[in-house]
Write a structure and sequence with these properties.
single chain; alpha+beta; four-stranded antiparallel β-sheet; two-stranded antiparallel sheet; 4 helices; 18% strand; elongated; peptidyl-tRNA hydrolase activity; hydrolase
Length: 147
């Protein structure tokens, strides 16, 4: 098995390489339709990694990943299952891509907090004018009065 390469992105300027020894790959028979091929080939791929034990993650990245992926973790283990393709090779590639995407998104720093600002006078005036135009449009659709 090859190591998992996570390309550079926000929060990971140099990217990451997870050693193959820290990854666990399991294969099983996929469920669902597929004819005779389903019963004979182990095309389902489950790729797992223990986030708490990853050597390539700093303490900050590890804490961030454990917090952001908490809904997907079983203990501290992240598992990705892929059965979308008929071929085991394609499912393995897809599982690695999904795992890399999940880890990259999990270690990203949070976005900067929004600074609250007041609306300008012009924007307030535009909003009121738009509300007035909308009110007139709706009033024009009403049934005319009996007077």
């Amino acid at each position: 098995m090859k190591p998992l390469n996570i390309p550079p992105g926000p929060g990971i300027p140099k990217g990451l390489v997870i050693p193959a020894a820290e990854l666990t790959e399991r294969f099983a028979r996929s469920g669902g339709p597929g004819g005779q091929g389903v019963n004979t080939t182990d095309s389902k791929v489950q790729l797992s990694v223990d986030i708490a034990e990853l050597s390539v993650l700093s303490d900050v990245y590890r804490r961030r990943a454990l917090q952001n992926l908490s809904h997907r973790l079983d203990g501290t283990t992240l598992t990705v299952s892929v059965t979308t393709q008929r071929s085991q090779v394609r499912n393995r590639a897809e599982a690695r891509r999904r795992m890399a995407d999940l880890i990259r998104e999990a270690v990203q720093p949070p976005p900067p907090r929004r600074r609250r600002t007041r609306p300008s006078r012009a924007s307030i005036a535009r909003r009121k004018a738009q509300k007035q135009r909308r009110s007139e449009l709706k009033a024009s659709r009403r049934r005319p009065s009996a007077y």
